[in-house]
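Run log, item B.
One chain of 517 residues. Sequence copied directly from the ordering sheet:
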Amino acid sequence: MSKQLIIQLGRLDRNYRSLIPFKYQNHEGKGELSSLFLKRDADEFKDCDLVLVFPESIVLQDWKKANVDLKNNDKGDFFLEAIEKINPEEYLKNPEDIIKQHPHLKDTSFWVVSSIGHFSFIGEHGQRDFEFKNTLDRITLQIYLFLASRHSNDKLESILLDISSGQNIYIAAMLNAAYRFLPYIKFKRFLKLDNGFIKGFILNADPILGGDSSTKNIQKSTFSARAFNSLTFKDSSEMNLLIKTIFKEKTYYKALQNFITEDYFLLHGGLIFTSPLAISLANEVYLEKLFSEVGLDQIIKDLESFFNQKNRSYADDHINQNLVYSLTFALGIGNSLFSSGFIDVLKDKEIIFEIEDQTSKNIKLKNELLDSTCKVLEKEYKQPPRDYKGEIQKLYKKLRDANIEVPKEFLSYANLERKLKPLNEQNLSNKETEEFLEGIENLSSSFPTFSGIVDEWKSYLMDNNINNDFVSRNYFAHGGFEKNLTEIKMEEDKIWVRYNSEMVGDAKKQILKYIKK
């Protein structure tokens, strides 16, 4: 596949075989379509892929007079003659069989999309009248799914929309589809930084009018669409209903449903709220089933197939198209995270930070995956950076100060604080703390009258004002590293960070609730 893709609306009018003079930069030539000229005569586009989009109604016009005129001129036209012979009802069951004979398709591919409007066809089988009750939204969705299913390969660097055919509803659908396709590619390639993001362009020629033989200049301009930096949907019940409608017969239906209900919110929410350790709470079994055993490409193909069924009544279809776009965005970012280094976080349930500098008072930490991810979030999605490493540094400092020495095993600050409260309050060493507590025990046994007071005093020293529960309001305020939930340990030049497995069940429910609100 090429690095560039041009899309243009296919042409079929009474003069569709005539050659039009075009100019692009310093290249001049002729072509039936501007895109055909560009691919043939402009060096910039010689190796591009070209797709022509045809509405299914394009042949359902009265071509009889055009055929007669051509035959009177001793020319004839095999394509128009083939159209005149069709049975329109049979044609609509599989329009590709006729349209693939279109003379413009020698070196290009094509798609057929639904139509809008009234048409009267006269051919060998008599006259037939047709009314297509589709919508701009539905045609947009079809073109989008064609793109996502067939042209979302990682080699694609730019998509160019040639709108020189004129302004109509199908041109509008192409533009709307590309406006959603660009964000989908950005989500799909979210962490593939080596091949960059896709670019969009508009190609537009001077107005093409009948009888005007002047050269038509073609302009190229930038077309952009930024991917969303917030959750694309929040009502998982509505999304699950959509999934049931489309995928209920698929073997991966349950895995897809589970991904939407929980995993997606943790993956996407963990990024947009800059709380990367939340990603570890996602279920890697569901993700393995969805993105390894089935694959993103297969899911998108199944989605395209559903909306391209020839026998479906689109006029009575109440599916929310925006939810379909949201679903593909969710799948794109889920696949990107699953296919990246974050899979280790999912499996190990922990993040490892390298200690880059220990000379300063505050340790400097490094994690290339998180560092690069945050750069993407800031550059492409305008997500302000969060000092998540600073939170780990502060947590580590509290543990270090409380324990005198670096923790060698996983330990949360809350548990350490509970264990060493006298040390924190009285600045005693571990040995002094043990001697102090031993003295309290001796005092209690020597003066039984005061045992109740002594026990109360001891309890106060050990437990007073210590909260060992997950505090939801602190969670995202501190980049997802709430001190009671987060455990760390250090070995040599690395710090391991994970969540307390005993608390994570209740914490996960509150985190999901926060993300969805």
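Observations after the first pass:
- The CA atoms of residues 144 and 180 lie 7 Å apart.
- The longest strand covers residues 116-123.
Flagged for discussion on Thursday.
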